[in-house]
Amino acid sequence: MKRSDGDRPVKRFLNTVQQFSNIDETRHWCLQQRRQNRTIGLVPTMGALHEGHLALMRRAKRECDLCIATIFVNPTQFAAGEDLTRYPRPLQRDLELLERENVDAVFLPDESMMYPSGFGTYVSPPPVALPLEGESRPEHFRGVTTVVMKLFQIAQADRAFFGQKDFQQLRVIEDMTRDLNVPIEIIRCDIVRESDGLAMSSRNRYLNDEQRQRALSLSRALTAAKNLNQSGERDIATIEAVMKAELAVCDHVDYAVVVNRTTLLPPTDSITRPNESIALVAARIGNTRLIDNELL
Questions:
Q1: I need a surface site. Which of 7, 55, 71, 203 has the fewest CB within 10 A?
Q2: How far apart are CA 271 and CA 233, in angstroms?
Q3: CA distance linking residue 137 with residue 189, whole number of Å
Q4: Residues with catalytic function
Q5: Has this prediction a pTM greater than 0.90?
Q6: Which residues pair with 260 in a beta bridge?
Q7: What positions does the entry give for beta-alanine binding (predicted)?
């Protein structure tokens, strides 16, 4: 059932997309929709929207009555020396994309709204946060779990949509939601790629033409791993060696591993069962850090 404008507590308008910067108004709007038995799909983002984000919103629109997006560059998930200050913030373009996709509402808090003076409560991430990204960015997932839990509390959505490109983040959020009995369904969404195979990312815009060509080594490494596995190769060391060879053009490789999809730990020395493993890579091209993965 379509709602009328009279149903809506309005902060301000970009045509039909309602914009909220205040937590109470956002929560009030969401609760009002739920009282009318409308299901809400939540798509948390840090902005700099691309086709991957838009695919999440389209799925939320298909599977729920309403879609609310969030745009917030979360400072607590950036470590010292990372790209917080230069992270792209093309807000007007993002709002135009939301309008084009008929997103119903967007929550646009500032840092002082999410982390007011005296803020001191953080959500400790589950064990799945410890390997891989957790080894090189030990505070990253504490920032992720904290901000995502806050967004869950504010939006009170029925479902939240996350892309599988950030697979470890997805697993962290799934376990946090389960462990803390959060009444929201986490929906996994497929990776969206450019026509040449590069996984879509807001950080791709940092790459110059030469770097972008080298960045294709990530998807090539994963394709090589998948092809090896499909041809019968089960030895993890062999598959990882092939991935690392493909990534030799990168300036630095953080990891190129095959792990269990649930625990993100190495299963054994070999892949013993189908549909239990995932290949993950993280590498730097110039000053840009990229990640990607492929289910095996």
A1: 7
A2: 8
A3: 24
A4: 53
A5: yes
A6: 277
A7: 77
Cα angle vertex 74, ends 263, 122, to 5°? Answer: 60
Task: Extract the annotated binding site.
Answer: 46-53, 77, 163-166, 169, 192, 200-203
Binding site members for ATP: 46-53, 163-166, 192, 200-203
Domain 5-189: assigned CATH number = 3.40.50.620
Domain layout of the chain by residue ranges: 5-189, 202-295
Side chain identity, residue 169? Q
Amino acid found at 96: E
Q: What is the pLDDT along the chain (296 residues), one digit of tens a residue?
A: 334 444 444 344 445 899 999 999 999 999 999 999 999 999 999 999 999 999 999 999 999 999 999 999 999 999 888 889 989 999 999 999 999 999 999 999 999 999 999 999 999 999 999 999 999 898 999 999 999 999 999 999 999 999 999 999 999 999 999 999 999 999 999 999 999 999 999 999 999 999 999 999 999 999 999 999 999 999 999 999 999 999 999 999 999 999 999 999 998 888 888 889 999 999 999 999 999 999 99
Three-state SS for 152-186 is: HHHHCCCEEEEEHHHHHHHHHHHHHHHHCCCCCEE
Amino acid at 237: A
Q: What is the CATH number of domain 202-295?
A: 3.30.1300.10
Sign of CA dihedral 243, 248, 249, 253: positive
Task: Map residue 18 onto helix, strand or coil.
Answer: strand
Q: Which residue has the tokens 């462990």?
A: 179
Tokens found for residue 134: 């957790």
- Rounded to whole angstroms, how far apart are CA atoms 70 and 5? 21
Q: Strands of 252-260's sheet, edge to edge?
A: 252-260, 277-285, 288-295
